[in-house]
Each structure stands twice: as C-alpha cells, then as structure tokens.
Amino acid sequence: MPKIAKSLAARKTAARQIADRLAEFYADAECALHHRNPYELIVATILSAQCTDARVNIVTPALFQRYPHAAALAKAEQADVEKLVQTTGFFRAKAANLIGMAKAVVQDHDGEIPPSLDELVKLPGVGRKTANVVMGVAFGTASGVVVDTHVKRITSLLGLTKATQPEKVEADLMELLPESEWVNFSHRLIHHGRRICIARRPKCPECPLLDLCPRVGLKPLSND
Description:
2 domains, mainly alpha, Endonuclease III, domain 1, elongated, Endonuclease Iii, domain 2
C-alpha cells in the first residue's frame, strides 16, 4: 500500500509540491477531448467512458455534423446514433444516454447545457466525473476534481489517498488542494499518466515527480 503521510498538514504540503511540479512540466495541459462548446464537450465526455480520448476524437466529427446541437440529438434514432459511436464501446448504452441527455436538456434547459453541477448530474449518462469536466472546462468553474483511471492510480502511488472509490479519492484531493488547483491538477496528472507514469511500464527515471513519489511497488527502470 502507498505510504500515506500521517498528518493532514503533511499531506497538504505534499499535494502542493506535486501540483507545483506538475504545473512546471505540464503548463499547457488541457482537456484532450476535441470540442467547440459545452454541448460537444458533454457528448464527448459521455463517450469517453471505457474509451480513449483519441478514439472519441475520431468519432465525434461525424456525430456533431449530423447532430450539431441538443435539439437535433434529442430527435435522433437510437440505431443511427449506435452506428456513429459503435467503436467507442458500450455503444448501445452510450447512444441511449446521449439521446436521453439531449432530450432532458431540451425539455428542462431550453436546449442549453446547464452550468450547474447539481443540474448536470441529473442528466442521463452524466455522473460527477463528467459533470466536473464540463463545469471546469466549458464553464471555468472548479466544482470538484476529475478522477479518472490515471488520477485514481497516480494519486494512490503518490501517497495522497488510500481511497479506492472515485468519490472518496475526489473528496481527499479537494481537501488537500486549493480550489484554484482542482481543474488543472487533473489535466496535468492525466497528461503525466499518459506520457510518464504509464501503468504497465512507468518511466520512473524520466519522472519529474521522482523525488516526491514513494514509488510503492515500482522499481526505477534501467537505462538499457
């Protein structure tokens, strides 16, 4: 298990050091999902579940061309949406969620994505993670910390949390980090997970967080 600092103050200090280091190395990190507005972002984020952002970015141009706004998607046929999103996996459920989300947006919000966490999580297919993404990226509001597989895994390795449930991981990070860091911290840690702290083969010798990481269960790679 990761070594968790004993005191809250110590963990806050560690979290701030990590956030500062990430900011130094990933200053330009941003959401990898291609979008032009809140509608496109919420659709892309729903599709990103159990799927890579790269794959979503391949699928969404055709989807947005056919359904450029919530009102159009709300009238879509399930089978037609399924065909467009099939390669993202779980395409039947995702298609149903997309249409359900769009119908709710049209019915309850005049076709506009609501800039409210409480309203977003009421939409079909939208959990807290998706809502946090939309709030932070589309509306510039730090409603929480996005916890995806990278954030969950790396914050555990870094000793910032021993929680395993995303909601509990998020609560721990919200306590450790200032609100001003909530949005960027996730973007930067996700970039770090894709480039350096790769699950199956972490590049520990190249890691800018090496001196801050307990590296529990990991051994630095050789230079061979």
